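Researcher: Next sequence.
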Amino acid sequence: MLVHTSGDPEAGDTRRWQFAVASGILGWVLDAFDFFVLVFLFDTLAVHFNIKKIAIVYTLTLTLAMRPVGALLFGALADRFGRKKPLILCVLYFSTITVLTGFSPNYTFFLVMRALYGIGMGGYWGVGASYAMESAPQRLRGILSGLMQSGYPFGYLLVAVAMQTLVPAFGWRSLFLVGFGVALVIVALTVAAPESDAWKLHKTASVKTILLFTFQNIRLFIYLVILMAVMLCLSHGTQDLYPDFLRSMPWLSRGTIFNMPFLYGIPILYNIGAIGGALFFGQLSEKLGRRHSIMLALSVSLLSIYAWAFGHSAMVLLLGSFFMQAGVQGAFGVIPAHLNELSPDPVRSLFPGFVYQLGVLLTAPAVAIEYVLRDHFGYPIALTLFELCVIVLLMFLFGFGPERLGRSFRQVVLTPSDAPSVREGEIGEAV
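Model: Next structure:
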């Protein structure tokens, strides 16, 4: 039963909402940059620490596995005490850990730092996404969702650029240091932004209440964890090992594209495709719906698989990877809005963030599994088999899943559970 509403879904303190959105987006760019640094430094770090490359690859898995801890910790703080202070704490935490990583004296220290970094990386998305989605005008939710999620491939792109600019001039350690200045900009933006009106309306009295409210919505919770686990197999399965796949073809090391070596130029260009896809499908979801837009984006990736994995020329690989990432991140561009619209109001930081990062935990072995498949079948077949299974499963999950397009974040519902109702033909009444 509805007991309170602000009327206009865009009512409330919308002054300086752009600062809130900018801090959420920029923080995700920085988070992605700090994560993807390793993707380009597998060989360099293996030589530096005098270990096998698989040990460096393993640290990616460890980082991903620690993300749910951060989502639970920072998400609960954000639902209890507001979005601003936990966001500032989180970005300063993971940026400091990243700087310390650059000064690792040995592999053990490096391993511990990457695990601790995973806590901060996992904490940021839920807080940043809820802060951005709650602060933005409802009519802009789709495009800003795409802009938020496009921060991830943009961070990847920036690493590829930094490998050609910072590393030759200052060495590989500079990649772990450069982000701290950006963290201070994010802090300044967050301080200047208003607190979320939606949080003020739905805030709860204790962390215990927040956790209880989360598990009152257990069916929806389980569905979304499964959904995000498969979505993250799509994302990490197409991104994390792809630069290594390109390096496995010696002929690519000898050419250039747009005056850039193929090994860096192709990742830069396919991440431009990823950013474009996130923005396009995010905006499209306002008219076509969240699920149908995601399924259309997945179709683009499905059609790109052969060129992406089996391309026998640089141009075919470029086109395949460009449209692959346009589809992958196009689908992900809808996710911030989709998860926030499905999430119960009092736990809109913890619920989508924890769901997202538990999906990451289930997905943590994916990169290592792909690497093992590569040893048995070669990169093209391993990548193809993995992603075909993932895309087909996602089509099913989204085809029969729930949606709350355009849901207002400024309503209070007096019910035991705020689990969203769903359209006819979808999975259950609470899922």
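Model: Residues 2-6+14-413 form a domain with the Growth Hormone; Chain: A; fold (CATH 1.20.1250.20). The chain has one domain: 2-6+14-413.
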